[in-house]
Design a protein that fits this description.
The chain has 600 residues and is an alpha+beta fold. 37% of the residues lie in helices and 15% in strands. The protein has 12 helices and 22 strands. Helix 6 packs antiparallel against helix 7 and helix 9 packs antiparallel against helix 11.
């Protein structure tokens, strides 16, 4: 550090916050250094942590530590700036330099550059090594590194004093060190093991550092420069290499960000593709189910019409058969009569046959009327196929809410606009049910509670009704069902039976969706209709259109319509909740009525 301390400035060790030399420096993850106290105070009270220099933002406050290496370098830099370089040079000269008295001061006066510049090393080396002669080649090399008018240049040609006798403590085998003067006074130069002279020259040909005698003996005609010149050139190359490395780091950091962004885009695409495909195929399945139901209805109606037509034709034929049998009986009696005059008079009245319909071209209509349904389904499948081809070529659009032309149920956003603030009615709760204080959640306990046996309370079925009576309009609410294996959700008629065992069907006043054994979803009806959900919902939305007689169920997260009851409501209905039994702790989670958040 001391050798090059003269080339460094306060700015290189300056904290950009306090504008002073570093005190306990710490380095941020982006590579910039500040005083530990300064950067800590700068970040105190902030929610977003940025580097004061490059403004790089960190997600959380970095855990900083003192940069010990930088602190040691800073302390050494402070020590080099603590005293004058000239005084230290004088002290070094008085410690045994061989230059005649006054020569050093004369050099100081005549040198155009201060002794703390790169030539200080040469001056010190000459001062310390002046008891030995320099070869002409090395003298020329050393002289070329300082100005021509410098006393050092002149001295390098003319100064060659005889070597003084070594001091008593000097041993030729010992390794001597030459101390630089000025700001570099704390740096010890190594000496040559062979010649015991300061190593000041760098041979570029052999890529070694050598002393002047080595240069004269073994490196003649080689490309040689001073060590400090080589170091200055190396420093320039180091700076270029450092900049190149920094640029490579920046490029790779940018690439890391690009890759992370790409991963994020893939995640978004997967979510969009998943949601879109679920909606698309669920809509197709719903459309096919509706077509199948419509087909069954049409065939049932055709069957009923055919039966009605056949019954009418058979009735008419039976009447004609009865009339003909009566004619037959009369003719038989007439043929057996002994009153010939009566026969002659009566027979003309039987001569013409009774009025009867010509049934020759009459047949039962066997047309089922399903052609329209099949054509509609064919058009639906063709439209779905075209949409699949388009998706295969271009992918799902960013907004997948209106993907499928087969979706006919109201969109989630539309039904959510009819949000109803539903609360539980504790007077209807089964004794095992535990209700929250805000009447927004319910779960099943292990034992019965001591509750009044009021008429509106369910005593066998583990369920509870909502307080809000629905007698008109449209209403919507959402229920969290995460973690449960069994539950029932929907609506119930006001007049339903609440005592004893209940058959929960629409004809008995119950319209709800059930989950059993964690995977089996059922709509309890007379035929107990099962429904397959390829995406298990965590939150169920219930929508009631009282005038239309509809109760619809939605998967809130996936924004998918699950099923719709179509019926006629003749009295008030209430929200219906059943968390089912707790299944020995496997189903002890609550049903939670959650606030409705309108989704886009």
């Amino acid at each position: 550090m001391s050798l090059y301390g003269s080339f460094l400035s306060d700015e290189q060790f300056q904290c950009c916050i306090c504008l002073e030399v570093f005190t306990n420096p710490s380095t941020t993850p982006c590579g910039h250094s500040f005083c530990m106290a300064c950067i800590s105070k700068y970040w105190d009270g902030l929610k977003v942590f940025q580097c004061p220099l490059c403004k790089k933002t960190f997600q959380k406050r970095p855990d900083l530590h003192i940069n010990r290496t930088l602190r040691e370098i800073t302390e050494q830099f402070r020590s080099t700036q603590g005293g004058g370089s000239v005084e230290r040079a004088k002290q070094g000269r008085r410690g045994g330099g061989a230059l005649p008295c006054g020569v050093f001061d004369e050099l100081k006066k005549k040198l155009h550059e201060p002794l703390t510049k790169p030539h200080t090393a040469l001056t010190s080396a000459l001062e310390s090594d002046s008891n030995q002669a320099l070869s002409p080649e090395v003298t020329t090399l050393l002289a070329s590194s300082v100005p021509n008018h410098s006393p050092i240049a002149a001295m390098s040609h003319n100064f060659d004093p005889p070597p003084p006798p070594p001091p008593p403590f000097f041993r030729p085998s010992s390794r001597r060190r030459f101390t630089l003067s000025g700001a570099a006074s704390s740096h010890i130069l190594p000496v040559c093991d062979i010649h015991n002279r300061g190593i000041l020259i760098y041979c570029r040909t052999d890529q070694v550092c050598i002393c002047p005698d080595c240069a004269t003996e073994d490196h003649q005609d080689h490309d040689m420069v001073t060590v400090e010149d080589e170091w200055m050139e190396t420093m320039a190359q180091l700076r270029v290499s450092e900049q190149e490395i920094q640029e490579m780091i920046r490029q790779r950091v940018r690439k890391i960000e690009e890759i992370r962004m790409a991963v994020t885009e893939v995640e978004v695409t997967v979510e969009r593709e998943t949601a879109g495909s679920i909606r698309l195929f669920s809509a197709l399945m719903s459309a096919i189910e509706r077509s199948q139901a419509e087909l069954m209805d049409v065939m049932e109606m055709s069957k009923s019409a055919a039966e009605h037509q056949a019954n009418a034709m058979i009735r008419q034929l039976e009447l004609e058969v009865e009339e003909l049998r009566m004619r037959e009986t009369a003719l038989s009696q007439l043929s057996q009569s002994d009153d010939h005059m009566h026969c002659v008079k009566t027979f003309p009245t039987f001569l013409n046959p009774p009025p009867a319909k010509d049934w020759t071209g009459v047949s039962l209509n066997s047309e089922l009327g399903t052609e329209t349904v099949y054509r509609s389904l064919t058009a639906l499948l063709e439209s779905f196929q075209d949409e699949l081809k388009n998706i295969a070529e271009t992918g799902f659009p960013v907004s997948v809410m209106d993907l499928s032309p087969v979706r006919t149920q109201p969109r989630m956003k539309r039904v959510q606009e009819y949000a109803l603030d539903v609360t539980l009615d504790s007077n209807t709760a089964h004794p095992r049910l535990i209700l929250s204080v805000d009447m927004k959640s319910v779960r099943c306990g292990d034992r019965h509670q001591m509750l009044p046996a009021n008429p509106e309370r369910f005593d066998k079925v583990i369920c509870v009704l909502g307080r809000e009576a629905i007698s008109s309009g449209r209403h919507y609410w959402e229920v969290e069902v995460s973690g449960k294996t069994d539950w029932d959700l929907g609506v119930a008629r006001q007049s339903v039976s609440r005592k004893g065992k209940i058959e929960a069907t629409p004809s008995n006043g119950y319209w709800f969706l059930s989950l059993r054994d964690k995977n089996k979803y059922t709509f309890p009806t007379e035929s107990s209709k099962d429904v397959y959900l390829n995406l298990h919902p965590h939150k169920i939305g219930i929508f009631v259109d009282f005038e239309k007689g509809q109760v619809s169920f939605y998967n809130v997260e996936a924004k998918i319509h699950i099923y719709t009851f179509n019926d006629t409501f003749t009295e008030c209905i209430y929200p219906f909740f059943s968390p089912s039994t707790n299944k020995s702790g496997k189903n002890d989670g609550p049903l939670i009525i959650t606030p409705v958040t309108i989704t886009d």
